[in-house]
Design goal:
five-stranded parallel beta sheet, Oxidized Rhodanese, domain 1, 2 domains, alpha/beta
Length: 151
């Protein structure tokens, strides 16, 4: 059963279009992305802050939220499920008025809106290592191939 149906209405869904309009109007919003840091770096809503679901509790959310007093709190994930879980936790811990982006980051992207991407140090190092290993492997292979082909 959907937790939105069984939970008290202490949060509500926010459509991608409504969020975009509110952001463009300059409304004070605190966007919290509850995905992992790696997912966040791969593409997130501009201005969103990362607070992974496994660390998302009312105290942590309040600390981030305090950076923009009086702003509305909007939870975001990839599709909306983790944001819904986070909203349930926050509401059980006494937070009201939480908003969830309906359809999450995927809906935002599907609507044609930009996401911000950040270089991931781990990914950069991994790519560099793979290129180095690939070059070494290819050099060894070329030598073997040359020997096999009478070259």
């Amino acid at each position: 059963m959907n937790t939105l149906e069984t939970s008290p209405k202490s949060w509500r869904m926010l459509s991608v279009g409504e969020l975009k309009r509110r952001l463009e109007a300059g409304e004070s919003l605190t966007l919290l992305d509850v995905r992992s840091q790696a997912e966040y770096r791969g593409g997130h809503l501009p201005g969103a802050k990362c607070l992974p679901l496994d660390r998302c509790d009312a105290e942590a959310a309040r600390v981030v939220w305090a950076e923009a007093p009086g702003s509305a709190l909007v939870l975001v994930c990839l599709s909306g499920r983790r944001a819904e879980t986070a909203a349930g936790r926050l509401c059980k811990q006494g937070m009201d008025g939480v908003l969830l982006l309906e359809g999450g980051t995927q809906a935002w992207i599907n609507a044609g809106f930009d996401v911000k991407r950040e270089a991931c140090v781990e990914t950069s190092l991994l790519r560099r290592a793979m290129r180095l290993v690939g070059r070494t492997w290819n050099r060894g292979r070329e030598a073997r191939d040359g020997d096999c082909c009478g070259g």
